[in-house]
Design a protein that fits this description.
mainly alpha, 4-stranded mixed beta sheet, 17 helices, 4 strands
Length: 438
């Protein structure tokens, strides 16, 4: 144990003292926010405004097709149809010509079948769907009018049904759409955090083992400590590095959220708004929404969520890091690691993508088995925990993961013991199996 502690300390201090670790730890949240802003900007930058000339022979759409920043409708006389059709390909600033035929005897189906949009360049799917939606809405209103239904009745027909649900098992657990959205968001954040940390730091363990093996440093170290002690020291050292970085990021996120909340409240209070803006702000109360979200978060069993998160993260990380350490010891270069790393990545990806179904049915059979099987439980159980998981399922999953982690450490140690001192030979799956059996 003393040697494991010394190697863990050395590995931890070596990693956290690097400038790259300090810079990445401090800048990663900023880079993530910047990346999100960049993606949003790219989507925004790719948006364009389309202008369409409209020939409305039916007379139904003249005052009802509304233009905005993305789509503009310019109505032109029907006498210009032939001239505009022939010159459309040479027009600049006009993307198409929308021709709507006459409406005969309220035959809306015939009108729909004969309406056509002539374009002089490719238009986006969103633009085409927007035009289709606008036309459909006008026709829908006209169909309703022919049935003798008033506008108030139309508004009443469009009202959605608000279904209120109540959990008779757990009176404290809300079942509103907002509650489900908050829990789903928390589930995704926790799931992605575990998934990314296991892969990033698991690969770091593998590269560290591979680097020492190629530099022949390991031959000197092995003369003083056992291979198992060296492997466990590396895994635990990098585990502490991951926890340190994760703790810093959580602290930064909490402080940032508090600062933004305080700043937004002050800005909202002091910001002068017009009548329309005031009405919009009154309709969408940010403070009320934030209060509801805070209430939902506070009602969650955070002690249990944090406990499950830490336990499954640590066990899952040690489980997969042992696998990565074994892979690093069995090969001579990073190119050869690709054929073995799939054994670690594929189960994690199955757990992550399978967990998306958990959000639709947290108590379904797939969610249960993904959170019980040790290869996927580090991700799936963390994705389920915000929705509430029976205690016996948490205990069963934890016991299986502990046993599997110890078994994986045992297998990895047997591979590490032989592979760390082998050079020049490409280890095959058959040969690795012999190392495990020996």
């Amino acid at each position: 144990m003393k040697n494991i502690f010394l190697i863990t300390k050395r590995e931890y201090l070596t990693q956290v003292k690097k400038k790259s670790f300090i810079i990445l730890t401090l800048l990663a949240p900023v880079l993530m926010i910047g990346f999100g802003v960049l993606i949003a900007f790219m989507f925004k930058a790719n948006e364009s405004s389309s202008t369409f000339n409209v020939i409305d022979k039916s007379g139904l759409f003249v005052s009802k097709l509304k233009s905005d920043e993305s789509v503009k409708y310019v109505f032109v006389p029907k006498e210009n149809e032939r001239a505009l059709s022939s010159t459309l390909k040479d027009m600049e600033g006009i993307e198409g010509l929308l021709i709507i035929p006459e409406l005969q005897e309220n035959d809306f189906e015939n009108l729909q079948n004969n309406t056509k949009l002539l374009i002089n360049k490719k238009i986006g799917m969103d633009t085409k769907q927007r035009v289709t939606k606008d036309l459909t809405e006008v026709i829908k209103q006209e169909k309703i009018k022919t049935l003798g239904i008033s506008q108030d009745q139309i508004v009443n027909l469009d009202k959605s049904f608000a279904l209120k649900t109540e959990n008779v098992v757990d009176k404290k657990q809300a079942d509103s759409d907002l509650d489900f959205g908050v829990r789903s968001g928390l589930s995704m954040v926790l799931m992605y955090a575990v998934f990314m940390f296991i892969i990033i730091y698991g690969v770091r363990v593998m590269r560290s083992v591979l680097e020492e093996k190629n530099n022949r440093v390991v031959e000197i170290i092995i003369s003083s400590v056992k291979p198992f002690e060296l492997m466990m020291g590396k895994i635990l050292g990098v585990t502490l590095v991951a926890l340190t970085q994760f703790s810093i990021w959580i602290t930064m996120s909490v402080l940032g959220a508090i600062s933004l909340n305080t700043g937004f409240a002050a800005m909202q209070k002091d910001l002068p708004v017009g009548a329309e803006s005031a009405a919009a702000m009154e309709k969408f109360d940010f403070k009320q929404l934030a209060g509801e979200i805070s209430h939902i978060l506070l009602d969650m069993n955070f002690a249990l969520i944090i406990f499950v998160f830490i336990v499954f993260f640590l066990l899952g990380y040690i489980f997969y890091s042992s696998m990565y350490a074994a892979i690093g010891s069995a090969v001579d270069n990073e190119t050869e690691t690709q054929q073995f790393t799939l054994f670690a990545i594929v189960p994690l990806m199955l757990g992550m993508y399978g967990s998306f179904t958990i959000m639709n049915n947290p108590e379904g059979p797939l969610g249960f088995w993904l959170s019980i099987i040790p290869f996927t439980s580090p991700v799936a159980m963390i994705a389920r925990i915000p929705f509430g998981v029976p205690a016996w399922q948490i205990a069963l999953s934890m016991i299986l993961l502990v046993v599997s982690t110890l078994l994986m450490i045992y297998i990895a140690a047997k591979i590490y013991r032989v592979g760390i001192l082998m050079y020049g030979n490409k280890a095959s799956a058959k040969e690795i199996w012999k190392w495990i059996r020996s």
